[in-house]
């Protein structure tokens, strides 16, 4: 019997032995060998006694099961128990190396390392593992099946960040089919190669040398302008060789490694042996010292050379010293002169021919405690400018030495700069705005309302103030006293007002008073005085004489100006006010509509009377019938007036007329020029007797004559007959 047990299975029953005895005797079970991790019960059940580990324990167990009856008869059977491996172990790396080195600029696909791992669950068979790189670096890739690490992108050791940190860290992960895995960090060190040729910037140089330059004179150091960007010092070394060109025998390189070009011959223009060349053109080759490896960047070059061009211009030598026009210069400068301003100019001449270019410079004394150089001189024009603001309180005088040079000979001159103190503060006066009222007959010479101004100036003497009215003083009615020499001054009426003759027409004066601080200015010690001005505004109202003699006392009025300023934070105030007004207006309109509706509903109808009465007229009455009844004889419905008793037969579908209308028709004898049928309103002054006559005339027509009794049937017949004869079908009596 073969039994299979999964590794990691906890102790449990794994098999039941079935045995039978013909005599039905009680059987006894035993198991050999006794050292195996299994046991058998009296019932024949085989149990495992431990949790098996396929990687540590035997993979197969053979058990001999013996069944014995009480008489000693027995039977033995072999049970083969196989332990089945499960995937319960994570793979591990077998590669021990963690650091690898490769040169830069390797081609894509270059193998860097072969990473191997093993899965304990696959002890007897090849492991089925999956390799991957867990990092953001895209310059390397790994074969997921074999673990071969390859170059996947360009690796440039000379570019950042590899230029500073040439080590690349990669995290390699291996997993089995169940996802269980392990990680290992490896480091790839990138080595520098000589893959960059030397470069020079600029590739052309222009130098000048005097004609009497002595041999050995240094001209230019080419190494300062050339470099090789390779990182490794052994790869960034280069040399200078191949100096050539017409007249190159007068020049030489100190060494192939230095790049220093020096003069070796004489090039005096007066020397007959000198070919008289003014400009020499030289070439120098720059090349790598180490073996070049340019194939990755420059596949068509085995070596790479850089050519430098050097242009040396020979200058003639002058024989005379420059001479300044003055041995010393004195400039006076205000302390508030702007930085960069010109304060003066020095000038020198040279007798050489052709004229040499003279260069000016400051050689001594142009600095202070805070600045190395406080003055600057134009090298070509000799224009002296200031580089920092001057301060009279710190230094009142600066002395420095300037030099004029023609590149060979030079001379010096002394420059003295006197710093002038400057008035740079404005007078401040109190009050700076005031309103006054004065009577028109105020006496000349009066201090107006006792008004005076007081002024202060931080950098001027109180006696330096001057007061004058700049604007608004029409006809010069006002002056300040004193007008100068004091820090206080009073407002005085200088001339009387004359409105009667029309000389004065303005009753309000707006005076703009200027206060300057130049009263004590003198030319001594100051070339230019900066005048500062303060301003005061006065509003003066002239009060005319009253029509009635009154006692007035001159006084002054303080004007308080109030200004409403809208605050954005209070936006809701106008919004709430507007909304409330609209709601209130709507409510009032609604209440008015309700009131009008109620009045129209509850007020009784009004009768409208129109009277048109004129002399010699015939009156026609239209009676309003406001009641209805049925004639008992004919059965027809007739209408009647409840007040007068007038009746008429009702027309079918004829509505009831609730309005009494009285029309007065003009007679035929009335004036033909006014024979228009029009209704006129009753005249207010019409005699009451005429109105009474109209009323009396209407009453007999409204009821039968006295002494006659008429039944409703007779009345109905009479009314029908009258209706047929009448134009309007009414029952009116003859007038």
Automatic annotation (TrEMBL):
Residue spans crossing the bilayer: 571-599
Gene3D superfamilies: Cadherins
Cellular compartment(s): Membrane
Pfam families: Cadherin
Stretches with biased composition (Basic and acidic residues): 677-694
Signal peptide (UniProt feature, chain positions): none
Keyword terms, alphabetized: Calcium, Cell adhesion, Membrane, Repeat, Transmembrane, Transmembrane helix
Domain named Cadherin: residues: 5-93, 94-200, 201-324, 325-433, 430-556
Name recorded for this polypeptide: CDHR3 protein
